[in-house]
Amino acid sequence: MATFPTPGFPLSIRLIILQFLTLTAVPIASMSLQTLTNNPHFDRETTLLGDAQIVEDKSHVQLVNPVASSSGILIHSKPFKFLDPKGSKPTSFSTEFSFSISHGNGDGIAFVVFPYNSEFKFVGQGSFGVFSEQKYLGIEYDTKMDGNVGDLNANHVGIDVNSLVSKTVSNISSLNMVLNNGEKLKSWIDYDSSSKRIEVRLSKFGERRPYYPIVAHEIDLVKMWGNQDVFVGIVGSNGNSEQTSSVYSWNFRLRNFPYWLHSLPVDPRAHEHGDRFRNHKRGICPLKFLAGLIFATGCGALLAFVVLFAWAIVSRQTELPTEYHVHPVDFKYEKIAVIVEEDGKGVKN
Fold it and tell me: How many CB atoms lie within 10 A of CB 110?
C-alpha cells in the first residue's frame, strides 16, 4: 500500500494520483461529485476532486486553496484505452487548456495520464505523489526547484515517465515567460501513436499556437498500457506555500486510426531549443537531394533560354538598315520632226 509523503518529502511536480486510494472506496460513477456539464469552456465529462472548486462567477476552476498543503484535480471522468480490444486502432490524443499560477514556490500544475481503477476516492491533502508500483505519464509545469530530482530551475516544463526525474525539460525563462506570475497561459499537448511521440507547446493566452514544441519525448503509450483503461487529469498542489492555481478551459480529444497506417514512416518536426533540447535531427535523403538538383538544373536552363530569347528580340529591333548609294540619272529629250510626203511613192521622214 502506498503512503502519503511527509511534509518534508522532496517536491517537484508530484503527481497527485497518490491521493486516489483503493481502500474501501466508492466507484467514481456512484460518487457525488461536482461536474462542469454546463460550462462551454470545459468538456461535459470534467469532474472536480479534492480542493478543486468552481469560483463564484463560474469563470474558472481553482485547483488549490491559498493555504499550505492544498491539492485538487480536474479529471476527465470517462476512461479510455490506448489500444482497443481488437488491437487494430491505436489511440492518439490532443488536449489544450488555459491556466494561471500565482506567485510562490509551490508545485504548480501537471497534466497526468494514469491507470484506471473502478474503486477509488480522492483525499484532498498532501502534495503531489504517485503509486510507486503504477505507471504514469506527467507533463509538469513546475514552479519549484528540487535538486533531489534534478530540476532545472523553478520555472520549467518537463515530461515525467514513471519517475519524478523528468525525461526532458524546457527552461521557460528562455521563452520570456514566467509560470508563477499570475499571467494567463495556454498549453497544447499532442500524442501521436504512429510516431510514438508526445509534444508540448506553451504560449501566453491569446497568442497563436506555436509551430514548434517547447519539449518533446518519444514514448510508446500503447506498449505501456495496451488495452488497460486510463484516466487523464490536470492536478495542482502548492506544497508548503500559499500558491494558487486556476484552470480557465480544458478540452480533451481522442483520435483513432487503423493499425496498418502506423507502419508508415513518420518524421515529425522537432524543435531545437538551445543546446539542451535536440530530438529527431532531420537527415538528408539522397532521393530528395537528387530530385532537388534536377529541379534546380531545369529551372536554370529555362531561365537561360528566356534570357537568350529576350536578348535576340531586343537585338533585332535595334539593328540599323543597310545604306544603298543611288546615282542620279540624266534624261535627255529630243524633238523629232516628221515630214510626210505623199507623192504616191511612199513616206519620207
Answer: 27
Distance CA 328, CA 312 (A): 38
From CA 123, how far away is CA 333, in angstroms rounded? 137
C-alpha distances out from residue 33 to 27, 45, 316, Å: 11, 11, 89
SS3 content of the chain, % helix, strand, coil (to 5): 15, 30, 55
* List of residues 6+ apart from 100 with CB closer than 8 A: 182, 183, 184, 185, 245, 246, 248
C-alpha 80/C-alpha 226 separation (Å) is 11
Burial of 16 (0-12, 13-18, 19+ CB in 10 A): buried
DSSP character at residue 139: E
* Residue 296 CA, distance from chain mean position: 32
Q: What is the pLDDT of residue 296?
A: 87
What gap in Å lies between CA 11 and CA 243, rounded to an integer? Answer: 14
Say if CB 154 and CB 11 are below 8 A apart: no
- Residue given cell 535595334 in the structure block: 318
DSSP character at residue 319: P
For cell 511613192, the residue is: 345
Start-to-end C-alpha separation, the chain: 155
pTM higher than 0.70, yes or no?
no
pLDDT at 139: 94
Q: Which residue has the cell 468552481?
A: 54
Q: Where do the DSSP E strands lie in 102-229? A: 109-115, 121-122, 137-142, 156-161, 168-171, 185-192, 197-204, 215-218
pLDDT in tens, 221-232: 999 998 889 999
CA 113 to chain centre: 19
Confidence of residue 135 (pLDDT cuts 50, 70, 90): confident
Q: Count how many Cα atoms sit within 13 Å of the Cα of residue 68 in the half-sphere of its side chain.
A: 4
**pLDDT tens per residue across span 167-208:** 999 999 999 999 999 999 999 999 999 999 999 999 999 999
